[in-house]
């Protein structure tokens, strides 16, 4: 049973990749989701229950990322997109890894600078759930929801306040860039995303 779109938060970094002034790329990287991290979503004043959530390892194995965008606070500031190859998503042993070439727009540049300064360091993601389970510990009043399969990720966002503290975002300054190697890596990732 599919439910409505949901949002969660993680950490990210920004990096400045310089080949020349004309081809300067502002890149960010981080994690929009972290596997097996238990987070408190809220505590109910009415029932006294603590509601927790955990994203299971493998939750993104069959996820649709084809129309995913990078936003700020899930808003209208799109700064990268999977379809264009400026947003790259992959899973590893930690979680859902994000790499993006920030748009050279006032919004993209502003958000990049805030990441670089450390003012913004967390991420979130908007998604729908394909499969979930739950446990209830009545004695300790703890309800835990396990996200076992994510159906689709609509956006990954750089956010002010994350739901998951384990998320990250940061900038990197790597100096000269190996454009041919990175172009080939992007092609492979795009092919992988399109076949998902």
Describe the secondary structure blueprint for this structure.
Elements: E1 6-17, E2 25-34, E3 39-43, E4 50-55, E5 69-72, E6 80-81, E7 87-91, E8 95-101, H1 106-117, E9 122-137, E10 142-159, E11 168-171, H2 179-195
Parallel strand pairs: 1-11, 4-10, 5-10
Antiparallel strand pairs: 1-2, 1-9, 2-8, 2-11, 3-4, 5-6, 7-8, 9-10
Quantity of strands, as a count: 11
Distance between the termini: 21 Å
What's the order of the H and E elements?
EEEEEEEEHEEEH
The portion of residues assigned to helices is 10-25%
User: What is the approximate shape?
Assistant: globular
Radius of gyration: 18 Å
Structural class: mainly beta
- Overall mean pLDDT: 82
Poorly predicted regions are 15-23, 174-183
Strand content: over 45%
Largest beta-sheet characterization:
11 strands, mixed
The helix tally amounts to 2
């Amino acid at each position: 049973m599919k439910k409505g779109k949901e949002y969660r938060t993680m950490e990210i970094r920004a990096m400045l990749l310089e080949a020349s002034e004309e081809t300067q790329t502002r890149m960010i990287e981080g994690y929009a989701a972290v596997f097996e991290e238990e987070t408190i979503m809220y505590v109910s004043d009415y029932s006294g229950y603590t509601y927790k959530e955990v994203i299971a390892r493998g939750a993104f194995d069959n996820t649709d990322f084809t129309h995913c965008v990078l936003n700020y606070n899930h808003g209208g500031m799109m700064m990268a997109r999977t379809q264009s190859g400026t947003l790259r998503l992959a899973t590893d042993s930690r979680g859902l890894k994000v790499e993006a070439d920030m748009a050279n727009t006032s919004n993209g540049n502003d958000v990049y600078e805030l990441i670089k300064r450390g003012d913004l360091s967390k991420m979130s993601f908007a998604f729908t759930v394909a499969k979930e389970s739950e446990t209830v510990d009545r004695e300790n009043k703890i309800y835990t929801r396990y996200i076992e399969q994510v159906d689709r990720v609509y956006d990954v966002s750089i956010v002010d306040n994350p739901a998951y503290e384990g998320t990250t975002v940061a900038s990197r300054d790597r100096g000269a860039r190996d454009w041919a190697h990175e172009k080939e890596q992007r092609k492979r990732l795009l092919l992988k995303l399109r076949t998902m």
